[in-house]
User: Fold these one by one.
Assistant:
Number 1:
Amino acid sequence: MSSTDTPTEEAVEEVPAPDTTREAMLEQLTGELGGALVGSHLEPGIDLTIRVTADAWATTAAFLKTGMGFGYFNFLSAIDWKPSPFGRDMDSQVDIALDGTEPKEPEEMTWGLAGGETRFQVFARVNDVVKHRGITIKADVPDDSLTVPTWVGTYAGANWHEREAWEMFGITFAEHPGLRHIYLPGEFEGNPMRKDYPLLARRVKPWPGIVDVEAMPGDDDDEDDGESSDS
Amino acid sequence: MTDVTDRQQLNYIAAQAADARVNLELETEGMTLNIGPQHPATHGTLRIVAKLDGEQVIAADPVMGYMHRGYEKLTEVRTYPQVTTLINRIDWLGSFANEVPFILAAEQLMEVEAPPRAQWIRTILFEMSRIANVVLFLGDVAVQVGAVTPAFFAFRDREHILNQIEAVTGGRFHPNFDRIGGLKDDLPAGWVAETKLVMKKMRRFCDEIETLVFGNEIFEARTRGIGVIPADIGLQYGLSGANIRGSGVDWDVRRDQPCGLVYDQVDWKVWTHPDGDSFSRCWVRLQETREATKIVDQLLDTIPAGPVMAKVPRIIKVPAGEAFVETENPLGVMGYYVISKGDLVPYRVKIRSASFNNMSITPWLLKGVYVPDIITILASLYFILGDIDR
């Protein structure tokens, strides 16, 4: 405790007001995109997420940049919504496929904000640095082709992000100027960020960090404590 | 060719003349220069393949991935508290600042708010990370133009900051101190008074650097007008931090999109510089370090009493949902897009690191510069390889 402590004032509780700016943004986007806007999620005071069709992926970016002032490119990546067949969670000591048991039963896919229909989604975020707001854009990637149009024409910075998403998820960005490996060696096979790509560390030995409620010190008697307690 | 305008014809002639000069008069020949992977100017393992014509760069292509550790994949098998030990290592010079946006995103999903005292200490440690990080930059940038002494000054004075961070967190480089719902521990006795002295030392360091480096003719000659980034190009590439403020864009996440930290409680200023060259980026960082010491000083004066930890369950399961939180880290905007399905582990974490975006402009920026300027431009962009490779 420091000597300069001062009593704190009670934080003023704010009543969540309707988020008029984001509602207006959503209205403008709905007007422009029409049927291409297939989902949206507005969290008042926090964020706006929209989902568009894969065909409208690039045109949405162009409209956001030129029509709505979102000139700042934040990031672009992808999500694999398929549950991992390895039972990769903290409740399982090892990947299920490792000890020979049958794979986990295929679970239903569930999607996040703004919904979804396909296994893969690309998502990106752009900002308006003048009005200090951001928006997340998602798009379903068609299961049969895994291709969406590139953003490089609109945001030059999307180049590297798309290379990363291509290498990690295997999603092709049509008309990208140089779709090649960015992190992994050129001869690398597979798409490591897919949920069905095994995590090699888990196959070598069980993960020791499994969560269970550890006994607090002094709760139980330690066996190897006898010698060290001699004074 | 009837529809060729005068302008196009002139351009064509100029291009022909330029080609002729390159190929005939000087008889130059293209050459590929590999800079790195191990190079003192790259703050880690980065390789730049530069195609040269004489001493001019025709094309530059950074090759990354030497340090790729797959953190985004690893977060999918680590519980939320365990993730902080990984993301500490992303920007190893300002580790504490990396933890904060992830914790804030998890708190946003859990609808937990840290107590005021924790928010204050968080912000103080956040700014101290910034100072520890940028101090090293200020010393190091001079090395790139041939001066070594400021680097020694930087390492000497950074020690004071690290000692203070160590006194609170127990770790010099990887504090792992931030928790969902607050902080691991409270400040030790006497820490506030000592930190104020350290802030004074840091301001003195900034003055020294300003005289030694920024007032230096060679430094000015090597950085003024070199590596100019226009604001609209910088925005397209997603530059952030001093790199974008050095191009005159008045945008600082700390002020404009506040999230969980108490920057609105202090009186401070966002510095910008209109030139967009290497010098302005360095200059903005110098001013920001000064500003950070002032922020820390003010926060130390107003730090409220109370607990540093909110009530959170022993085993943290984050409710299903998605949250994106970004903060203004030493290197620029750092954000985590956390997707939870209500498990012990995140379903997907997208790490939006500052340096990856900052670095992505280099192929555009290095085109046409001269070989010695590659180094000063890279230094002024200031990246940490862990932040690029993740």
Number 2:
Amino acid sequence: MTFIRTTFGLTTCKSASLVGAALVTGALLAHAAPASAQQQDILFLSTQLRPIEEAQKVRSVILKDFPGKVTYLVEEPPAFDVRMKAEGQAGKRTISVAGALHGELQPLVVSGDLTPIDDIATKLADRGIPANLMELGKLGTANQMYIPWMQATYIMVANKKALPYLPAGADINALTYDQLEAWGKALTEKTGKRLIGFPAGPKGLMPRFYQGYLYPSFTGGVVTPFQSAEAEAMWAKFKGLWQFVNPNSTSYDFMQEPLLAEEVWVAFDHVARVKDALTQAPEEFVTFPAPAGPKGRGYMPVIAGLAVPKNAPNPTGAAELIAFISKPETQVKTAVEVGFFPVVKATLPADLSPGIKLIAEGVAKTQNAPDALPALLPVGLGDKGGEFNKVYSDTFQRIVLRGEDIKAVLASQAGVLKGLMEATKAPCWSPDAPSQGACPVK
Amino acid sequence: MTLRSRLLPYLLLAPSVAFLAALFLVPLVQTISLSFMEEGAPSLANYSRMVSDINFGPAVRNTFLLVLTVVPIQIVMALAMAMMLQKLPRGRDLVLWIWTIPLGISDLAAGLVWLAILQDRGYLNSALYGLGLIEGPTAWLTYETPVALFVGVVVAEVWRATAIVLVILVAGLQLIPKEYKEAAEVFGARPWTIFRHITLPLLKPSLQTALILRTVLAFEVFAVVYAIGGTNFPVLVGEAYNWQRNYQNTGVAAAYAMLIVVISLAATVVFLWALRTKPEQQP
């Protein structure tokens, strides 16, 4: 199977002999006259399912039965954004289907790089995609801008060895932050090791923990209550919990390796980043929702969507591909192979592999928790998403790792956050109260 | 001389000059302009953001600390190694070949090699555990063990980049005419006197080259630190990378890049001045 991964003219291939073929394909794609849609290659660029094994699953399993020819390319989110906009500006579009997270597709609406796909939405009306997900796919416009593709979230994973140390009376499926701290304390005292882990490494998704879990659970918001009294209490609490967190956490990018190595016994991460541990040793682990704070059990649903870029070279093929991907059987295959869950009405097979079953359980327990408080991924920040994450990471760094004064840190970081919100004019997203204009930092 | 033969040297040099201009001068000018621009207008905003960032102080401190530790160790080690090579009656090429192996390894790969040695379940911990010196996996590379982390980075850097200094010094030693040494020996000079009064002064041009090269590269240290310390040990180039790659703010990244250029230039000027060799002192 030939695949090309083009980043600023770099081409990598499975084997050297394919390089030539790939280059020729690339050249043809760039200059091809619009031939018949069925025979023409459909370039599918995605920011999701990027690791080599997952991308290979997409190519050789998930899209295997698609009648047309698809080239599945992956790109990191910043490069994806650059490429989509650059193709639009150059007037030479090569991508026919773009797959990315809700928040990654949003800036493409502003730059005018997506085409409305209400016709595709109408054709897929019988697939049973929940109305609220379809509404998200309009990205705040009157038209359908993407079709929901798959969903995931973050869960907690614990080694079964940690269960005897749970504080008395605690229900693992309804933990509070106090109980998590008590659990960490018991683990540290009994084993002499700090066994809770967070993905706070350079490429870890820790900022999502602050934005989707910690802040919503304690303050009921993400941006507006950034320096509230509740936020001060929350950071003090988290600093207390951090005493029992493995100090290697600031190097962890994915939690599956430390879980498998038993460097940590209790961890928080995105389902895709604990999947390997759960599929390799399902009998060793349990999954459960993140803890709850005074305002509820914050959680961040992750929605990925499929969009068609403006002036896509193969819109017919794109529509066919999107229809194929949203078929219940393809959606089930996606869940089974890569652990992202269906957005359509589809029953997961009873003989699901034990690891994927663990993920499904964790996700279901999180979504169906009575005190669940969904917090959306940031919207409307455009290329300032990285700096937005930095505000939260820096706050953590200063308060928890460097021991600076909480009130002073929150005041100075709130200034940075305010500047960022005003520069992007991003309105508030759930769970912050809706705003007229830039989301206020109070 | 014909017109053609007068032009020939310039013609031969032209491609490389054009190449450098296109791939070095143009990006340099662009970086300078990027660093002084904010939303299309001239401004110092990027520099003020850089200086007020929480990692700026630690990055400057760590970078200088690394340079001031690593470069002297490398010069002393390379000098000692080069002198030892001189004394070898045979097998000199083999020893030199083994010593320069790290030159062929990319800095990121070198960082990963040392990560495999130093991490919790790495070779160092296994060895210490095997000897009964520690009770279990010990973390050396966390934010809580800054000294061990720093030592780890220093060891990796010394291992990786001492060979380049060695190669320069070995070449320099071979340029020193034997007559000086022989004359000194006739007058009864001891090895240490010969080293201090003959070898070292005549080696100054090579030392200057090695110091400039190593110092500039040490100010640009990144991959080794990134592999071993991640974000626990901020350095200037790492911050430039973060601002460009993770925070997507090209302006601040350019400001960091300019700071590194200025520091490197200053270090070069200092070495050029401090280690200048008068024509009559040259061998």
Number 3:
Amino acid sequence: MKIQVLYFAWLRERIGLGREDVDTEAATIAELVEELRAREDRYAAAFSDMTTVRAALDQELVALDTPLGQAREVAFFPPMTGG
Amino acid sequence: MRVVVTDADFDLKTEVEALEEGADTGAVVTFTGRVRDVAGGLRHMEIEHYPGMTERALTTIAEQAADRWPLSGVTVIHRHGALEPGARIMMVATASRHRDAAFAAAEFLMDYLKSRAPFWKKEVTSDGADWVASKESDEAALSRWSD
């Protein structure tokens, strides 16, 4: 399945891009992270400490073990710092 | 309910006056966040957001506040882009018959905005640039609203 993956803040900087289309067999967000990690060092570096990574599925904040389902957009970012 | 995500500055007076409309509004509480100079070396603060999700998240937070307290108005404005020291970053404002609800709702909005709205801040100084880390205390602040 094809899914759009977005990266923000230092994840975007470490990976070197803000968004990409990913062809994945992953069932969950965590499995998608594993696939990305296996690709290249820059992904492994960005996802080296998952306690500092948050995820959104179709623009809703979700836990990392959430199934991808029919989602079209997954975003990865550090904990938010608004205000 | 007014939710705005913009790179432009806003006018406090205009925003407050809009909330003061209506004979039933007895209290308007506003909070404004500004860019603070870190040890005199800040060039600017870069605020990144997630277009689409940011507006949704802020609207959800504002709706939750309106569900919990009898508010006659809620305004949330958050800027993004490069902001210089002293610039306004954001504001929340709440209007109600009584001050208790207006104060509480404004605090609720701020607590949720801190760690549930997709914004990330980067401080650019003469020494380089660093992403502002989230604080555990910001996450802990949410627990007081969990009843």
Number 4:
Amino acid sequence: MTVIARRLAGHLARGLVMILVVTTISFVIIRNIPGDPMRARYEKLVEQGMSPDQAERSVAVLYGFMPKGTMWEQYLDYMRGLFHLDLGQSLSVPGAEVTTLLGSAATWTILPVLVGTLLSFAVGIILGVYAAIKRSSKLGDILAVSGSLLHGLPQYVLALLLSAVFTTLLPIFPASGTADVTLEPGLNAAYIGSLVQYATLPVLAYALAGYGGWILAMKSSVVTVLGDDFILAAELRGMKRGIIFRYVARNAILPLFTILALSLGLLFGGAIFIERIFTYPGLGLLLLNSITDRDYALMGGAFLLITVAIVIANIVADMLYTAIDPRVRSGQEAS
Amino acid sequence: MTAPVITGGAPGAPRTPDTPAIPGVSGTRATLRRNFRRGVWRVLRRKPSRIVGVAILGVFAFMGIFGPLLYPARLPRDDNALYAAPSLAHPFGTDFEGTDVLALVITGARYVLLTALVTAVITVALGTAVGLFAGFRRGRWDTVLMRITDMKLTIPALPLLLVLSTVWKFTSAIEMGLVLGLLGWGGVARAVRAQTLSLRERGFIEAARGLGLSSGHIVGRELLPSMAPFIAMNMLIAVTGAVYAQVGLFFLGVLPFDANNWGVMLNLAVFGGGALTTTTALPYMLAPLLAILLLTLGIVLVVDAMDEIFNPRLRED
């Protein structure tokens, strides 16, 4: 238990450092944007008859920190607001808190990413075992090369090809949105069915993007385990092939949980493309729109939330690995 | 973006360390080079798909170098053939201005490939330097460098690029390549470090150290040559990562359309031409997609060959 607690503490510390780095990047960028939007906003409000004090407070609400004093004072003001979970207000959606917008968008990103990842994980692992067993055959070659190809292709290429096939040539899926706008949102069969229908292509895009990596990783891992002494011993004892492969799969799957974290991270990055192509209102599309709308408070908030999601994914994956691998759990050195 | 990184297994037979006392050392090196070339050719011949991969990359290299020379600076337009369907004169049809789509792909390749090349060189140079240093020195240096690398890997590169695009417009291919390279070295560093840790315990490195050779010699003349195929693999993989990020940014429309390239084409086809709902602009969208698909396929096939060069034991399978 001490081992797990120590690892968790280390991860949390590093996660906090990451969050500080990202928020600092956001702050520096906001302060260095050409045209100084904060000052422009302030002067515009004063021209409209607002008093200087009122204008200052209005800009502070929008951007999350007071636009006066030294750069260091502004930075501390920004960080102070952040620790109170105050990220400012949106310019493009007047009156809306950044945190509110992020919360609703996050749901639309997290669910498809998780479902897509689990799908690709399951299929990739099964075919990875098969590719390892058949690695000397033509089929093993095809599986490995196709895995490499899918792994190397950008998500938007896969998403655009999916869209070209299923929304343009054979339009059996809707091209954009989250559900049929004529349906009443709620826990009823029609609405849920519509949600699933509209989410199918984004989920497939995530799944295809992740699948190649899994098949390659699992094949590599299985090949390594097949060379281990305990497998040779099992074969010498004449164990059934099926039982041997259960041993192989159980051991070979361990490293893949570490890769899971990086995979999720990449998919969160790819969400920007997939959500743009399918006009799916998640975090990625929110970040993109905030940039085109010059909504800097929302941009900083979205960037921060994506980073936090990746940090959390890393921590969860490592804790999972600790729980799954008996050698780590008992405090011994992992292989 | 973080390019996918292949972590190779243990390298093949260790190379005999060079010593000044051996007469005819230049002849020895020539022999080694000839043997290496012969080995490469044998690996390529084992699978025809690898030769196909080399051919594909050759075509793209030619396209990048000579493509713009095949067409006039301002491509001709046909006002009577806006969004024309594919034909013999226009294999992928025309765009919204009546410009040939194939010509756009070919002339747009230079920007894409030049950026990818610059990115790959910087990514691999930085990643290899950090990875070699961390793996060879170990101890405190290793810890510090790997923490920095982990931090590097955790920052989501694509969102960061989007955020940076609000203050920086990446006006030239080299400038964009520089930014992408500085963002992408983390994965390579980690992979190279793993290889260095593995190699430094090998017999030939121990022998070199026993002979009293300097660290510079051991790293530069023993470790690096042993890892050369592995580094080349990562360089090619970095190319796919660079194409991904660069075409992607233009596709999203966050960078100004100063020059034609594949990302601009995708953006105009999808968001300007409605390629996702009507078939009119579909060829316009599919042409750059096909180019990216073929480029990635070529790289994948060549990396497959390099993997076997780096790991001769794979031939036993």
